[in-house]
Design a protein that fits this description.
Elements: H1 6-17, H2 23-29, H3 34-46, E1 66-74, H4 79-90, E2 95-100, E3 107-113, H5 116-127, E4 133-140
Antiparallel strand pairs: 1-3, 1-4, 2-3
Length: 153
């Protein structure tokens, strides 16, 4: 589905802001009746444009007051090392995002913790003790000026 009609774009924009909106309310906002709106949403889901529906939680309300971006370089790039690192990342709930990146580092992790000390403990006792990390550097987030999961549609 490469070409999107404007109604599909409207539906996607609204769902990105409120994934819990009722079908009736969504249909009203895009000026469609419920059945055609439902068919469009189903088509967008089946085409893979809608990946999943989630609740976005407030980290501060959960006591997660520290956030950091951690750049990681691995000791080597063997299949075993990369697989071990990937398994580690997938099993650590404090890592909310991991990207393989270009440049001098191999990965960038987005990490959350209760505070700076908990973040240091996670880095020192979990990440660096893996034995496969050559180097890392961490940037603490001082203040978020924008946080969005919405994509431009």
């Amino acid at each position: 589905m490469t070409q999107l009609e404007e109604k599909d774009r409207e539906i996607l924009r609204i769902l990105q802001q409120d994934g819990k909106i009722s079908l009736q309310a969504l249909a009203e906002k895009v000026h469609l009746s419920s059945s055609p709106c439902w068919r469009r949403v189903k088509r967008l889901e089946e085409a893979g444009l809608i990946d999943r529906y989630v609740a976005i939680l407030n980290p501060r309300a959960l006591g997660l007051h520290a956030q950091a971006y951690m750049h990681v370089s691995l000791m080597d790039h063997t299949e075993a090392t990369i697989a071990a690192f990937d398994r580690f990342v997938q099993n650590e709930p404090q890592i909310t995002e991991c990207c393989s990146i270009t440049g001098s580092d191999d990965f960038m992790l987005k990490v959350v913790a209760e505070g700076p000390e908990a973040l240091e403990t996670f880095i020192m006792k979990r990440v660096l003790r893996l034995g496969i990390v050559r180097s890392s550097h961490t940037n603490f987030v001082l203040r978020r000026t924008k946080s969005s999961t919405a994509l431009p549609v």
